Amino acid sequence: MTQPKIFGIAGWKNSGKTGLMVRLVSEMTRRGCVVSTVKHAHHDFDIDKVGADSYRHREAGAHEVTIVSSTRFAIMHELRGAPEPSFEEVLARLAPCDLVLIEGYKREPIPKIEARRLESANRQPLAPIDPHIVAIAADHPVTDTDLPVFDLDDTATIADFVEKVTGLRG
């Protein structure tokens, strides 16, 4: 496989980013793409349950803990005070794929769609200050932009747009 295409979804908390990501992964996979995702969290997070063996390994000081089964594997890397890896370092660790969908990473210079919902915690538009936002997906009419505007739930049309922008398909 060649270098994967990269496309992001940005937006404020409760703007519909995760729902759109999940629907896009399903749609792109249905279309035959191998899709990976990267989600940026702005807080301490844990994918391990307290008391699990892997949790105990990390708590004991392991640098990386890998959990492997017949259905999946996960590698947790403890930073232990080291800086957060750069966006490029994270991408470099991914297995080969056709498309990487990015949730978060508002400041990265990648093409992205801005998710907007009326119930969003913050309704300040990102598009006017981010030249890498190439479209808006909203659950309400948006008239203050020259960018393409999609219904937040129109996954097939948004997927077509992602394919066009990234050059994934004709």
TrEMBL record:
InterPro entries: MGD_biosynthesis_adapter (IPR052539), MobB_dom (IPR004435), P-loop_NTPase (IPR027417). CDD domains: MobB (cd03116). Pfam families: MobB. Transmembrane segments: none annotated. Residues 6-139 form the Molybdopterin-guanine dinucleotide biosynthesis protein B (MobB) domain. It comes from the Bacteria. NCBIfam families: mobB. PANTHER family: MOLYBDOPTERIN-GUANINE DINUCLEOTIDE BIOSYNTHESIS ADAPTER PROTEIN (PTHR40072:SF1), MOLYBDOPTERIN-GUANINE DINUCLEOTIDE BIOSYNTHESIS ADAPTER PROTEIN-RELATED (PTHR40072). This is Molybdopterin-guanine dinucleotide biosynthesis protein B. It comes from Sinorhizobium psoraleae.
